[in-house]
Amino acid sequence: MATHHGKEGSVKIGSNVLAEIKSFSLDETAETVADTAMGDTAASYVVGLTDGSGSIECHWDETDTNGQVAMTAGASVTLNLYPEGAGAGDTYATMTALITSVGVSVDMGDIVGRSFGFQSSGGITWGTV
Fold it and tell me: Where would you tag: which of 43, 50, 82, 83 has the fewest CB atoms within 10 A of its CB?
């Protein structure tokens, strides 16, 4: 069983590496629809539509014009998430993502942070580099 350290992860907007990433998350879901009929003795379901959403946390870098600056609220981007790195043979998720939120956090004792929320549109595909 292979394990990976979080430091291997990366995010790309199209082919551009997103600068100063601290963390990212991706949640995939599938809705279920009841197809139980009269006379059945137990509930039954079928899978409906799949969906995905997540977030990205970064140190703020206003010079990252093809990454952080391009992800404005409402923007549609090609998002590529690499949990184990972006080297040959590594697994990644790709999707069209709608940027649903953009935030900035400032703490006197910390690095200025940037956060992004996203919603997939049209499905998530997993592949290898």
Answer: 43
